[in-house]
Design goal:
Strand content: 25-35%
Shape: elongated
Helix content: 10-25%
Radius of gyration: 18 Å
Strand order of the largest sheet: 2-1-3
Largest sheet: 3 strands, antiparallel
Distance between the termini: 42 Å
Length: 79
Amino acid sequence: MQEYRCTRNALYSHDCIGRDDLTERQGYYIWAESEEEAWQKMATRFPEETEAGFTIQEWEGFNVKVVEIKRDENGNTIE
């Protein structure tokens, strides 16, 4: 299985950065056997947007490490 990043091509109805710029849109990350299967999964989620379609891209996930940084009352980092 491959992970795909899928975005909705239909224009957003509210005023936001992603309304007219597809690169600013939130992606949906879907596991599928092919781009076509990923498209079909998006069509199931958003049936009213199939005419506008979806952008499907292969996606390579990566590991993320979240680190908490604590600061004292003066704003200095606490080791």
